[in-house]
């Protein structure tokens, strides 16, 4: 089920390549369009074809798939013991991409500790959840998602074990699952991170349409 979910993530990302990316990016080189850009140093338009070829080569290869425990074992070997239930840091994500993806291939990391994930994530055993992150070079986490738990009894037990102060606010969710449901999953994709990766932009602030600047609102 989790591998099928990862395949869905891949298909969504591949949708962005149904268009000729080189035509989309090269349209920015038009004198009129380019004059509207505030900073001509943000994107190196001279390397559009090269960047498109790099991205296509990434899609032509299978993405690497590892578990959280496999990543943890490698991190422990290299840097010593760490918290076995802690989330991956940005630096650790980059090390994982270098080790398992040779710095160029995206990497799926699955079966995260259940303590790191919301109560509605499906458990694969007592300590691990059916959750996955997609890491891409230079960026880190691009997609995060999981398979959902559909059994209201299990959901209620998990909520009770989390010692939340007000469970009544989630009654609607438990009642919804009480009517039944098919196995399903969901994920979130960072759109600005996707643009940053596709365009080869170093700073994510350069691809945010409405940047948040101290004491200023850009609309």
Automatic annotation (TrEMBL):
Single GO biological process annotation from the record: asparaginyl-tRNA aminoacylation
Swiss-Prot/TrEMBL keywords: Aminoacyl-tRNA synthetase, ATP-binding, Ligase, Nucleotide-binding, Protein biosynthesis, Signal
Signal peptide start and end residues: 1-22
Domain Aminoacyl-tRNA synthetase class II (D/K/N) residue range list: 56-212
Any one cellular-component term (Gene Ontology): mitochondrion
Domain of life: Eukaryota
Entries under Pfam families matching the protein: tRNA-synt_2 (PF00152)
GO MF term set: asparagine-tRNA ligase activity; ATP binding
Annotated protein name in UniProt: Asparaginyl-tRNA synthetase
Lineage: Eukaryota, Metazoa, Spiralia, Lophotrochozoa, Platyhelminthes
């Amino acid at each position: 089920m989790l591998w099928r979910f990862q395949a869905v993530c891949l298909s969504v990302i591949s949708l962005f390549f149904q268009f000729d990316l080189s035509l989309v990016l090269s349209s920015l080189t038009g004198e009129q369009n380019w004059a509207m850009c505030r900073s001509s140093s943000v994107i190196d338009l001279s390397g559009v074809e090269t960047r498109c070829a790099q991205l296509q080569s990434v899609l032509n290869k299978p993405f690497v798939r590892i578990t959280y425990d496999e990543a943890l074992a490698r991190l422990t070997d290299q840097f010593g013991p760490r918290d076995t239930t802690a989330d991956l840091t940005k630096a650790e994500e980059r090390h994982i991409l270098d080790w398992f993806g040779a710095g160029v291939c995206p990497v799926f990391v699955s079966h995260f500790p259940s303590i790191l994930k919301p109560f509605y994530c499906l458990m694969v055993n007592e300590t691990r959840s059916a959750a996955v992150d997609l890491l891409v070079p230079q960026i880190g986490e691009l997609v995060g998602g999981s398979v959902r738990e559909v059994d209201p009894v299990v959901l209620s037990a998990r909520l009770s074990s989390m010692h939340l102060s007000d469970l009544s606010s989630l009654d609607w969710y438990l009642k919804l699952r009480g009517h039944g449901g098919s196995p399903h999953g969901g994920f979130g994709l960072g759109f600005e991170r996707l643009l940053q990766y596709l365009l080869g932009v170093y700073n994510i602030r350069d691809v945010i349409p409405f940047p948040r600047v101290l004491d200023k609102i850009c609309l």
